[in-house]
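A.,

Following up on our hallway conversation. Structure tokens first:
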């Protein structure tokens, strides 16, 4: 059975399945990145925090879904948009005032 004429050949099916799975995973990751980036900006805007073009550009140019998830979490507690990039733990209580 010549493979070039039989699209149902097991090897052809396996290649198609792998290509489909890879395309699906890449598309899912791209969509996840886009949604998370939009979420960061949306959360800040919803909270009334102005988002500069520089912050928006940095968020939209990030392709790491884990970093974007971190920035989403930080956006919920940030006092200003730039705070989402600060590596200090925003969940920690502020240091005590000196007496």
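Then the amino acids I'd put at each of the 99 positions:
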């Amino acid at each position: 059975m010549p493979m070039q004429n039989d699209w149902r050949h097991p090897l052809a099916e396996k290649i198609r399945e792998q290509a489909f799975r890879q395309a699906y995973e890449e598309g899912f990751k791209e969509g996840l990145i886009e949604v998370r980036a939009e979420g960061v900006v949306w959360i800040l805007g919803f909270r009334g925090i102005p988002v500069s073009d520089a912050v928006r550009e940095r968020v939209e140019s990030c392709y790491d879904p884990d970093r974007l998830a971190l920035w989403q979490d930080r956006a919920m507690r940030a006092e200003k948009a730039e705070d989402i990039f600060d590596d200090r733990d925003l969940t920690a209580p502020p240091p005590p005032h000196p007496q």
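Helices lie at 10-46, 53-60, 65-75. Curious whether your intuition agrees with the design.

B.
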